[in-house]
User: Which sequence fits this backbone?
């Protein structure tokens, strides 16, 4: 790796010259490694689901990774993150141990939630992830409550609330955006516009398709950002997060992303007939992972050998997580009614 001894060097070129936030080469390498881990982790999940190692449901974030990474990169220990059911990238970006994340997916007692949550219901208090939520739009209510608590207790923290474009017409989202605007809560509503709610395109579920406008009527700033490019997300997220920290007011973000895989891993529910192969191919040209790879090479931040090594390292971490999950015991049936309410104690 050619970054050795160049920690403070910033990664600048024509792409970054106008940006307010320019990461160092070292930061970019670490973010690339995280993105690679998330990608390889989810590729494994897809296979494991088909081998019946993962039960329940499984929604992958493949193609959307730059968004979660770019925002979470700027967080502090007092901040909190909540998201919808497509939640693997959030916890991995926050630093949850991939072994415990995989074990949760495999339904094992060593999982983040002792195997009771599965893919859609991660929770990792130690890493500030206060839940993935399966009910479309539901996360917004809980996240607004968290932001209220942050303000009430004067913790100085902010909340990131991720949800999909399909949630933008849910009543609760509008009820709580009104509350957040009224009470000036430190929350960033991040709408992941990946063009579809399952197989329904935005034009068929929303009367106003410029979704950024939908957050602008509650008295706080609202903005559309391109979230396929990590450098751009890092820059936008820094400015947005700084604004929320300084003013204490909420922010609404419409993040343009694209998922390269089906809605859910149960293929039968996603024949892909709602979009063309050409459309997917067109968006794949904007793959945040391969574009970052190219950038690192162009900038002389990494060599082909570095990329190969990091890929092997990511695959090894995923293989170790899968082995850990495979070898972990199932939860004991006596635990079925444990940890449902206030007696929740994280297992580590
Ligand atoms: C209240 C509610 N209605 C319906 C569903 C079924 N459902 C699961 S995912 C989904 C689509 C959501 O799409 P979007 O919010 O765009 O998120 P994406 O899957 O694209 O990330 C629907 C309708 C649900 N989980 N909750
Ligand atoms: Mg969507």
Assistant:
């Amino acid at each position: 790796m050619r970054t050795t001894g160049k920690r403070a060097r910033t990664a600048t070129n024509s792409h970054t010259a106008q940006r307010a936030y320019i990461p160092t080469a070292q930061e970019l390498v670490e973010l690339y490694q995280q993105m690679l881990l998330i990608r390889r982790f989810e590729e494994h999940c897809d296979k494991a689901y088909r081998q019946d190692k993962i039960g329940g449901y499984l929604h992958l974030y493949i193609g959307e990774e730059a968004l979660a990474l770019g925002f979470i990169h700027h967080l502090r220990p007092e901040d909190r993150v909540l998201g919808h059911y497509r939640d693997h990238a959030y916890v991995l970006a926050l630093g949850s141990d991939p072994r415990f994340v995989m074990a949760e997916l495999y339904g094992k007692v060593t999982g983040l939630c002792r195997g009771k949550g599965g893919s859609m219901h991660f929770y990792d208090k130690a890493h500030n992830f206060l839940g993935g939520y399966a009910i479309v739009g539901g996360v917004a209510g809980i996240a607004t409550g968290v932001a209220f608590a942050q303000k009430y207790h004067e913790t100085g923290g902010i909340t990131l609330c991720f949800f999909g474009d399909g949630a933008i017409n849910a009543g609760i989202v509008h009820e709580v955006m009104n509350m957040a605007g009224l009470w000036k809560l430190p929350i960033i509503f991040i709408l992941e516009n990946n063009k579809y709610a399952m197989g329904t395109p935005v034009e068929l579920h929303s009367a106003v398709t410029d979704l950024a406008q939908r957050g602008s009527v509650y008295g706080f700033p609202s903005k559309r950002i391109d979230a396929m490019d990590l450098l751009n997300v890092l820059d936008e997220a820094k400015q947005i997060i700084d604004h929320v920290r300084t003013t204490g007011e909420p922010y609404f973000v419409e993040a343009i992303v694209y998922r390269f895989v089906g809605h859910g891993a149960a293929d039968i529910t996603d024949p892909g007939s709602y979009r063309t192969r050409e459309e997917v191919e067109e968006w794949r040209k904007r793959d945040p992972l391969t574009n970052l790879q190219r950038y690192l090479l162009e900038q002389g931040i990494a060599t082909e050998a570095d990329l190969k090594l990091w890929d092997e390292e990511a695959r090894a971490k995923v293989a170790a997580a899968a082995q850990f999950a495979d070898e972990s015991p199932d939860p004991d049936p006596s635990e079925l009614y444990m940890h449902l309410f206030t007696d929740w104690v994280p297992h580590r």
The chain has eleven helices and eight strands. Residues 164-166, 194, 196-197 surround magnesium ion (ligand 2) (CB under 6 Å).
